[in-house]
Structures are given as structure tokens and as C-alpha cells.
């Protein structure tokens, strides 16, 4: 029957039961549809056919074109198949169809894509019925058709559904006309029948649910999900590690939503950490997009592009993490999924918060224990340094008296000189121990960190191994720090020597940087060494080497007196650095990974 805007509607179907499904199909597949829908299993299905517009005719220009569904067919029982949806959505002229979409229902997507990638031109029996008229309406002559198909088609492939016994002869005639090789692929109606069966069974299941147990089934499903959430709450309550909590969250997402891909982004103080990915690989969203999403007022947001959702854990003001769940198995249940996601989001946010709080408590306890050990060690070092100094004063005084009375005895004089030199070395060690305790007096005048660093580099550079280069990135501004020049010189010297030893005999690079930084309270708390410093402006010296790097256990002990991973006999070098920073009221930051080098940064509060 003719219809408005040039859309022809054709009807088939026997006497229908009150509950029926109505399908809208392209009339190119009318014979296939009639053959399948005539089967008893489809006795509650009717079909209407839309005349094809993929043969070169102009598209309908009326934007109000729509399929005139029977008025007694509800929206839930209307299905569009093949390109009918594309025809009705178009409001332009001369647009070509994506024919791959049409063939998927009959031959399967993988098979169709494989032939298309090989350059094949797929045909159906319905199209071949009137191929001369199709070419004529498209403006082709035999010569132009051959030229066109030679340039764009490797071969012609007929998807033979078996509804037209003369389809093979028509294919050969068409192939001869356009001078292209051809292939007849007998696909039958099994794929189309299976796809229709799935569609019909889905509709029947939905209809049955709506008729008999829609409300009850929804309540039962919700109850089951909440039971799972309650079980999750009990399991999460005993987890004390953030990594295990995140694993449990991603496991739950897999069970509840069956996604193809799940990504979790940990967020610490607005810093987005490395993502944890499960499922298919793909590009992760940049941190800026994640930050924008985490700033939204809603905790859970649906994304049509990925057929999934993003779920934020924690409040928008201080998010703990963001999870993206994409390509869900049944995206049509989005409302139900979002409701469940928001519920588990609150539970998981609490578990994440508890795990991080426990980690902070453990870190605080560990810091307090280390602080007590350090204070004890400082007390021992101070006492030893004091007693050693008293003994050394006696030794040095007697050595000096011995030197005065040994003029006539060269051997005796040499012995007293060695005693005096050894006592001076021991006195220096005592001063280092005293410095490590933090009891050295504050400097009365400020030293320029940049100038002293440059002087040390100039002094040590000639003795640096040939394979090691030293690079300097200094800010051209004064960097006054409240440290005696001698101790500041020793600090720079020790850091440079330590970096050189870390590189060893291999070629490498040492980079020294100086400048001014604004330090936050969070950065102070994350530093290796700090003692109640306040946030603000700090002058800094960083020394970066390309050496062997350190693991976490070594990094924690690197400033202990006489601790070394190289060879025995090491002294108070880095412990002295710690002492200088303690006297200066500064901070020490260390970034290091095995095999990736080390950066030690000393931050000095700038004088008021």
C-alpha cells in the first residue's frame, strides 16, 4: 500500500494472535523473510516491508517520514531490521548506504567483514533480481560500470540464501556485464533464522515478564543484588590493604555488570595514579578528563559512547578513585545498573577510606618508632661524641707536650706527630657525630647555596671519572640559607661523591639543580626527613644520578650512620647530610627505583 513521502509499505502475515511482534524490513529480503516467518515457531510475528532506496533513487526529503506501525502494536513490540532505520533517519539526498550492515543479519559480521576487507562486492538474490534496472538508475553504461567495478571491486560474491534457484545465472550475467570474477557463497537461511529467532525470543521473554511478573521479578532481582552487596560489605570490612579492596571492587563489577573492560583510577589528593585495567586493552582517558568527571555532582554517570558508566568513590571534594565500566553485556538495563552501582559505590568508598586510614596509622606508628630509635641513637651519639672529645683533648694536649720535648729524638717526634694527626681526625669524627645529633649551633650569617654548590663542582669536576658528565641547572638568583659555609660545602661534596659512587665504572650523568620552590604540607609529610616544618618558600638543591638506584628498604636506611650497600668501612657521610638539614630546619626528599637512578633533594627554609 502506498504511504506518505514515497515510502511503500507491504504487509504479510496470517491471522495474528492479540500479542504479536511487528518487524519492519527492507523489501530486498522479502522472499527470505517470507520463507522464515512461514515456520510455525514464528506464528506470532508479522512483517511490513519498506521499498529499498539503495539502488540510486533519491532519499525521502521529508524529515517526518516514519514507519506507519499498526496502531494496535505497542512500542515494545516494534522492531526495525536492516537499513530501514537508516532510511527513515535520513533527510538528505544522494546518500549511500553502509551495505555491510545489511549483510550482517544474513551471513554474520565476521564473514562479511572478511570479504569486505578482501575488496569483495557482496550481493544478494533480491538485488540481482533487477540488476540491469539498478545500474541504469545509477547512470552506468557497460563501459563505465566495468571501469567503476575494476577500480573498486576485487570480485563479486553472492550470498546465496537459496530462495532463488536462478540466482547463480543472474550472478554470472552481472559478472560478465561488469567483467569481474565471481563467487557463489551458499549461506542458506540459518544465520537469518537464528538472528530472527533471537530477536523474537527476546521479545517474547520481555513480553512474558511484562505480563506476568514484571514488578515481582524486579523486586527479586533487586533483593538478590542487595544480598550480594551485603555479602560484599562483610568481606570488605576485613580487608586492610587498598590493593585488595580495589581487586575486590573490580571482581564485583565483573560479576554484577559483565563488562568487556574495567579501569580503576586511584586518586590521592587530586593526583590521579596509574590505572588498573581488566579486560580488553584500549586507550585510557587523560587525567584532565578524569578530573572533570570526578568533579561532577553525581557519583555515577552513564556513557552512551562506551555503553557503560563511570563511578566515583568518595566525595567530589576529595575523591578516592574513579572506576570506568564499559561495554556491558546488557546495556538496556542501565537504570538498574546505575542504581546498583551507586549503592556499592558508597560501600566501596567506605572500604577504600578505611584502608587508606589504616595505612596512614601504620605509617604514623612506624614513623614514631623510627623517631624514637633516632632520638635514642642521637642521645648515644651525643654522649659518645662528648666523652670522645674529652679523651681526645687529653691525647692532643699530651701529644703537643711530647712534640715540644722530642726535638733531639726524630723517631719519637714522628710518633707524636702521628698521634696528633690521628687525634685531629678523631676530633672531626666527633664533630660529625655531634652534628648528626643536631646540636651544632645555628649559623650567624647566611650562605649562598648556589655559589657554594658551584664552588664544590668546580673543585671536584677535575677528579670526576671520565665516563661521568656533570650538568648544572642553576637559577640565577641568590639562594641564602642559614648554614655555615663549611658544613654546606661538606653537604654538597658528600651528595656529589655519593652520586658518583652510585654510577660506578659505567658511563653516566649527574645533574645538579638549584632554585626556589613552594612546598605544601602534603609534600613535607611525604619527605624522607622533616621535623615539624611549615609549608612555604624553600631554597633547594637536587642531585640526580643515572646510577643503580635503590629499593624501598635501602632508601629508608640510607641516612643511618655507617649504613652502606657497597663496602665496609663507610662513615657518617649521608648521616652528616641529615645532621646539616636538621640544624638548618630543612627537608630531604628522595626519589629512587632500582636501575633507574636516584634524586636527592635538600630543601632549606629561606631566611626571613
Structural class comes to alpha/beta
Provide a count of the helices.
18
Counting DSSP E segments of at least 2 residues, the number of strands comes to: 20
**Average pLDDT reading:** 77
Sheet having the most strands? 6 strands, antiparallel
End-to-end separation = 92 Å
Strand content: 15-25%
Describe this entry's structure for a reader.
The protein has 608 residues and is α/β, with parallel strands linked by helices. The protein has 18 helices and 20 strands. The strands form five sheets. Strands 8, 9, 10, 11, 12 and 13 form a six-stranded antiparallel beta sheet that branches. Strand 12 (308-313) and strand 13 form a beta hairpin. Residues 1-7, 56-65, 84-99 and 567-571 have low confidence and may be disordered.
Layout of helices and strands:
Blueprint lengths: L8 E4 L8 E6 L3 H8 L7 E6 L27 E3 L3 H6 L9 H9 L1 H9 L2 E4 L1 H4 L2 H7 L4 H11 L2 E6 L6 H12 L3 E5 L3 H48 L4 H16 L1 E10 L2 E2 L3 E4 L7 H8 L5 E4 L4 E6 L7 E8 L5 H71 L5 H27 L10 E2 H12 L7 E7 L5 E2 L3 H19 L4 E12 L1 H6 L9 E10 L6 H6 L15 H12 L2 E6 L5 E8 L3
Parallel strand pairs: 2-3, 2-4, 5-6, 6-7, 15-17
Antiparallel strand pairs: 1-3, 8-9, 8-10, 8-13, 11-12, 12-13, 14-16, 17-18, 18-20, 19-20
Amino acid at each position: 500500500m502506498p504511504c506518505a513521502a514515497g515510502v511503500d509499505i507491504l504487509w504479510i502475515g496470517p491471522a495474528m494472535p492479540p500479542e504479536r511482534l511487528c518487524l519492519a524490513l527492507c523489501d530486498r529480503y522479502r522472499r527470505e523473510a517470507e520463507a522464515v516467518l512461514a515456520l510455525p515457531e514464528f506464528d506470532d510475528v508479522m512483517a511490513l516491508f519498506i521499498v529499498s532506496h539503495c539502488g540510486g533513487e533519491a532519499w525521502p526529503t521529508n524529515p517526518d517520514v516514519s514507519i506507519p506501525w499498526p496502531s494496535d502494536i505497542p512500542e515494545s513490540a516494534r522492531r526495525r531490521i536492516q537499513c530501514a532505520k537508516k532510511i527513515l533517519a535520513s533527510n538528505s539526498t544522494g546518500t549511500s548506504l553502509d551495505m555491510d550492515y545489511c549483510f550482517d543479519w544474513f551471513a554474520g559480521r565476521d564473514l562479511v567483514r572478511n570479504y569486505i576487507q578482501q575488496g569483495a562486492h557482496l550481493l544478494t538474490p533480491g538485488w540481482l533480481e533487477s540488476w540491469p534496472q539498478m545500474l541504469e538508475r545509477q547512470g552506468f553504461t557497460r563501459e563505465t560500470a566495468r571501469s567503476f567495478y575494476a577500480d573498486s571491486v576485487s570480485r563479486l560474491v553472492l550470498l546465496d540464501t537459496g530462495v532463488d534457484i536462478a540466482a547463480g545465472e543472474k550472478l554470472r550475467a552481472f559478472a560478465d556485464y561488469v567483467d569481474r570474477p565471481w563467487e557463489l557463497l551458499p549461506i542458506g537461511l540459518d544465520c537469518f533464522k537464528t538472528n530472527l529467532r533471537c530477536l523474537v525470543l527476546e521479545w517474547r521473554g520481555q513480553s512474558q515478564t511484562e505480563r506476568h511478573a514484571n514488578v515481582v521479578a524486579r523486586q527479586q532481582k533487586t533483593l538478590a543484588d542487595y544480598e550480594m552487596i551485603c555479602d560484599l560489605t562483610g568481606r570488605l570490612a576485613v580487608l586492610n590493604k587498598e590493593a585488595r579492596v580495589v581487586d575486590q571492587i573490580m571482581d564485583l563489577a565483573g560479576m554484577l555488570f559483565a563488562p568487556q573492560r574495567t579501569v580503576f583510577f586511584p586518586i590521592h589528593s587530586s593526583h590521579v595514579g596509574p590505572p588498573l585495567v581488566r579486560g580488553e586493552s584500549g586507550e585510557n582517558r587523560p587525567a584532565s578528563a578524569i578530573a572533570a568527571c570526578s568533579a561532577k555532582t553525581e557519583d555515577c554517570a552513564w556513557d552512551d559512547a562506551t555503553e557503560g558508566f563511570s563511578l566515583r568513590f568518595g566525595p567530589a571534594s576529595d575523591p578516592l578513585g574513579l572506576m570506568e565500566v564499559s561495554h556491558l553485556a546488557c546495556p538496556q538495563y542501565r537504570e538498574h545498573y546505575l542504581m546498583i552501582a551507586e549503592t556499592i559505590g558508597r560501600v566501596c568508598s567506605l572500604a577504600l577510606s578505611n584502608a587508606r586510614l589504616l595505612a596512614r596509622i601504620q605509617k604514623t606508628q612506624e614513623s614514631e618508632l623510627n623517631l624514637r630509635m633516632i632520638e635514642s641513637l642521637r642521645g648515644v651519639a651525643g654522649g659518645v661524641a662528648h666523652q670522645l672529645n674529652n679523651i681526645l683533648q687529653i691525647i692532643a694536649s699530651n701529644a703537643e707536650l711530647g712534640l715540644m720535648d722530642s726535638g733531639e729524638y726524630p723517631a719519637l717526634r714522628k710518633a707524636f706527630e702521628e698521634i696528633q694527626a690521628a687525634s685531629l681526625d678523631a676530633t672531626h669524627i666527633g664533630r660529625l657525630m655531634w652534628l648528626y645529633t643536631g646540636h651544632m649551633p645555628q649559623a650567624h650569617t647566611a650562605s649562598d647555596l648556589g655559589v657554594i654548590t658551584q664552588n664544590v663542582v668546580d673543585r671536584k669536576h677535575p677528579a670526576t671519572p671520565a665516563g661521568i658528565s656533570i650538568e648544572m641547572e642553576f637559577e640565577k638568583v641568590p639562594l641564602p640559607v642559614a648554614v655555615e659555609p663549611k658544613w654546606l660545602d661538606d653537604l654538597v661534596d658528600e651528595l656529589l661523591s655519593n652520586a658518583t659512587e652510585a654510577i660506578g665504572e659505567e658511563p653516566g650523568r649527574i645533574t645538579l639543580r638549584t632554585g626556589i620552590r613552594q612546598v605544601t604540607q602534603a609534600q613535607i609529610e611525604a619527605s624522607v626527613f622533616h621535623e615539624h616544618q611549615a609549608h612555604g618558600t624553600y631554597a633547594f638543591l637536587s642531585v640526580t644520578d643515572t646510577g643503580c638506584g635503590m629499593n624501598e628498604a635501602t632508601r629508608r636506611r640510607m641516612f643511618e650512620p655507617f649504613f652502606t650497600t657497597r663496602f665496609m668501612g663507610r662513615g657518617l657521610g649521608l648521616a652528616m647530610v641529615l645532621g646539616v638539614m636538621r640544624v638548618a630546619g630543612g627537608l630531604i626528599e628522595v626519589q629512587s627505583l632500582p636501575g633507574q637512578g636516584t634524586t636527592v633533594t635538600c630543601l632549606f627554609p629561606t631566611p626571613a
